Amino acid sequence: MEKEITFKPSFNFNDYLKINYSLLFKKVSFSIVFIICILTITANVIFNTVNANDFIDFLSFPILISLLVPLIMVWLPYKSTKMILSDPKLKENIIIIINRTGIEYIGQSFQNKYEWKDFSKITENKKWYILQLNKKQEIIIQKKDMNTNQQLDLKEIIEFVKN
């Protein structure tokens, strides 16, 4: 008999905010922005040292960058989470069905089906599964939305799909 998991997902703001922060810090683009900021600050320090500018000029730009970049990095996932969770479809009574053919989201006004071949990468951590559709789109399955047997079944299905 084919295993099938059916459960109701929860869409809690704090949980999804943590997920978005986690995903952001794993992205290469975050590393690139961080490196660019460090290089910009270093270039500013060298430029001001060579030109013997005032001490205020020497520190103003690095301080601005040091404050602005972290604020943006905190604000972007927050804003993104707020935007995603404001989707009226997420307020519907949704169920998720997972089996060996794929994943299906069924709401009152929609039905989305993804086959396992649609996912480019599947990762697991302590709290959730991340199913990557493309570089900018992931489907998150929270383990806390499933009971222990469902989690074991999902693990078995994913192992089957990976092989």
UniProtKB/TrEMBL annotation:
Protein name per the record: YcxB family protein
Limits of the YcxB-like C-terminal domain: 101-157
Domain of life where this protein originates: Bacteria
Keywords: Membrane, Transmembrane, Transmembrane helix
Pfam families: YcxB
Transmembrane segments annotated in the record for this chain: 28-47, 59-78
